[in-house]
Design a protein that fits this description.
Three copies of one chain form a homotrimer. The first copy, chain A, is an alpha+beta fold. Helix content of chain A is 22%, strand content 29%. The longest helix of chain A is centred in the middle third of the chain and has 15 residues, at 128-142.
Chain lengths: 265, 265, 265
């Protein structure tokens, strides 16, 4: 089976930066299958990168190596790391990008990329993606053991994230991601909704900021076209959507907006 | 030879959605070669999706599986289908997206994706692309027969499209696609132009809405830089272009604008 | 080892054009590994295309075939060419796109794509990328010799480029590329800076247009967040950057803006 390296960056696809990383990977691991997760993370937005990676990595085959470079501290002292978590391996700067995945997995191994033989002969201080992270990912994909890449480290940078709060029959959280369709994806997990339901038959509704209650449904087309609703989306989190439209436009909100799921009898 | 799955969606590449589908496909069919047709179809624009797919699928090797997901009715009762048409296979919602291809090919086999064993164990009602369509495409690419995926269906959703009209020495149609360069691609096929010519030597001209006649040429640079012209483009349809510029900007029109090819002696 | 074809165009990814080229390549060379360099070159911007290609091609494995199509003269008399330069092969219109690479390599072989058997049976005069360039690249990747594709040509179109000037302890050049992060990449190479330094210990500074001197550092985070600096970027050229921000926005400049590196004792 061909090894897979999946890439996530904030480099965009307009410049040659992603291509340079792919060239480097193909030199080291010619048989690799390269997959783009996304390169359109807003520049230096570690939160967004961490969420996208966490949302899709488990869809990939076991053994996939994820190369994730959103790196405001490139060239500085933040550590370059590689990690094994669950069935997957990851290469990234230690700036929180891998936080959600490393917190959720057990056991986890993390090393700092200290071995020069697994990086380019000369490492640009402004493009470690090409010279340090891409080679490390390619060597992992080629069969080099994680431990060979550097010294084990015991801690890593966590990602600061606000958690949703469940009190009584309400779950209150916030928008953490706005997707291309204008869906407002929140940090409220399906389990939070169940806790708020407290095992009592009741009808939930969802609201954005102090807006009116919206029906809580199963899929967009459960409400008429143009109408807003709440539902549990494909990553298992509550989202607010407009059937055939954009909830982001409808409500004029973005990341950070408060969303509440409320049960009433 | 490695099987090919070519993907077309309106998901964009900013979110993780396309990557999730690719991960799923690679799990089922590790040797697959994945090719993006485009993911920048305007949200829920079935017409645009159908046109892009029809325009390029025949360039691919026989046996290619096309996974096309533009799906305003996700989670609703519209049928998920797979089809064999000519040398190719297709997986898509039955909403007209495959209409032009299924109308043009013969014979055609279509099945509804009813077999649960070829979908994810649990199917999200907001992301059937990941949980139902991607697995079906991957199983087809892996060698599973179309008939194994579900029950045959005898009809499918056609795509409503206005046809060009030829009367006398005129062919009248409309803009159906505006490309990145601002070329106005119409629904007037080369055959329509030939019918309007009626076998008589004559000089054609093309006009947009009620604009002045433009020279009908063979390629952009047959007119001076900055000048507008008509020609038969790479998909065999009349288009209006500006050499080194954008016809969409020049004429201030978009999809639906009337275009006429006129022969005069 | 699987052959690699790397693609660079100004086609964008919204239309089906890039996919059509990939389909054609896969028909001819089923085992190919396809890599996108970028398809977001501004329409018909040969300078930008030439720079991106020159900046990343050497990261790829030897033997890689680059298919580069930015072609304002499509269908006209400009020659379609293929070239071998260093460890790489290239297929492109002869319009300057390959200029910087062909000037820098030695020896170089260039042929005009004259052999009809290595093009599509019928060549669209508006899409030679699909019908002429893509097949040629695929045949090269399949093992066909460069010489088989057509007649050798002795000269090719060079790219007009202004060179930086070093006088005294100053190197003066211009912005040639603005990347996604707003970094202003110049045509001043590291060697130009060393010449200006003239072997004397001195502190360089960099300035944009007639702006104030900015510190010359090693990486973005050597200056505080939000502060501008100059440095030698990942392609070995001087760039002006803002740590955590966009230098293009800060200075309100774009391609062509004057940048000066100055040594003072």
């Amino acid at each position: 089976v061909r090894p897979i390296v999946a890439l996530l960056t904030d480099f965009g696809l307009r410049d040659h930066y992603v291509a340079a990383m792919k060239g480097v990977i193909l030199r080291i691991c010619p048989d690799v299958s390269l997959v783009d997760v996304t390169h359109d993370i807003p520049p230096q937005d570690i939160q967004a990168a961490a969420l996208e990676l966490a949302a899709c990595h488990a869809a990939f085959p076991p053994g996939t190596v994820f190369l994730a470079v959103v790196d405001p501290g490139v060239g500085s002292r933040r550590r370059p790391i590689a990690a094994a978590a669950g069935d997957y391996r990851f290469v990234a700067p230690d700036n929180g990008l891998l936080g959600p995945i490393l917190e959720a997995a057990f056991p986890v191994s993390v090393v700092e990329l200290t071995r020069a033989e697994y990086a380019a002969a000369s490492v640009s201080r402004t493009f470690e993606g090409r010279d340090r992270f891409a080679p490390a990912a390619a060597w992992l994909a080629s069969g080099v053991a994680l431990e060979a890449l550097g010294e084990p480290v015991g801690t890593w940078t966590r990602l600061e994230r606000r958690q949703p709060v469940v009190h009584g029959r309400r779950a209150e959280g916030e928008v953490v991601r706005v997707d291309r369709f204008g869906n407002l994806v929140t940090n409220i997990a399906e389990a939070d909704v169940r806790r708020a339901a407290s095992g009592v038959a009741a009808i939930p509704s969802v609201s954005v900021a102090d807006g009116p209650p919206l029906p809580f449904v199963s899929t967009y087309s459960d409400v008429p076209g143009g109408q807003a609703c709440g539902l549990v989306g494909s990553t298992g989190h509550v989202e607010v959507s407009v059937n055939g439209g954009s909830a982001a436009e409808r409500f004029g909100v973005t990341r950070g907006a408060r969303v509440t799921v409320q049960f009433s009898s």
